[in-house]
Design goal:
By secondary structure, the protein is of the alpha+beta class. It has seven helices and 13 strands. The protein has three domains: 52 residues, Structural Genomics Hypothetical 15.5 Kd Protein In mrcA-pckA Intergenic Region, Chain A (Roll); 75 residues, Pseudouridine synthase I, catalytic domain, N-terminal subdomain (Alpha-Beta Plaits, 2-Layer Sandwich); 79 residues, 2-Layer Sandwich (Alpha-Beta Plaits). The site of uracil (URA) has 8 residues, from helix 6.
Length: 238
Amino acid sequence: MRLDKLLANTGHGSRKDVKSLLKKKLVTVNDTVVKDNSVHVDPYKDIIKVGGNAVHYQKYVYLMMNKPKGVISATVDGKEKTVIDLLTTDMHRFRPFPVGRLDKDTEGLLLITNDGELAHQLTSPKKDIEKTYYARIQGNVTDEDKEKFAAGVLLDDGYKAKPAKLNIRRRDAISEVEVTVTEGKYHQVKRMFETVGKKVTYLRRISMGELVLDETLKLGTYRELTENELDYCISLKK
Ligand code: URA
């Protein structure tokens, strides 16, 4: 990897800023001052220092966000605020993106990473990764609805949804449920409830595979995955 790319990717400013660091003889590779920005280094073997401080290269970033309402699950948008806009600017150098989509009005667990392979594993329809949502529903959710979900409902576009689990927590004019699906079709949960004549009034994702929403995360905030959560993600890539 080029030295200037590595320094830019580790938060040492733009390529222009990096050039100036090199010019000022502040950068060493294995204790030798380097002034040439096109030098190739091995980020895992060479010891690179800036102003005497070792540079730690990190290729991937894995963040758990508690997505709030009102922001979209995209990287950039001309009009709307995105989940990436909620990250501190030092995270932007990783070029992170959200894994799968939550609707603008959906809250909860969103994984943000720059690991394309992991994103693929988590969203691939072949993998059947379970995604569980807490939902409030206008109308009395019944055991019949539960059976229909278990059999797989026919969505408005003629697509037959895969079997889903419905756990009814409260049955009333406004019901509370947990619904587990293994796919991520557009407005999937909302459209599934439409097939039984009911409307989702609130939706929050609470888990995705073994990743469970950290309830201590305030809406709009995020943290890096823990070692255990990372181990799970890495196991998916094998
Ligand atoms: N299903 C929906 O309808 N919306 C979401 O955001 C996620 C699942």
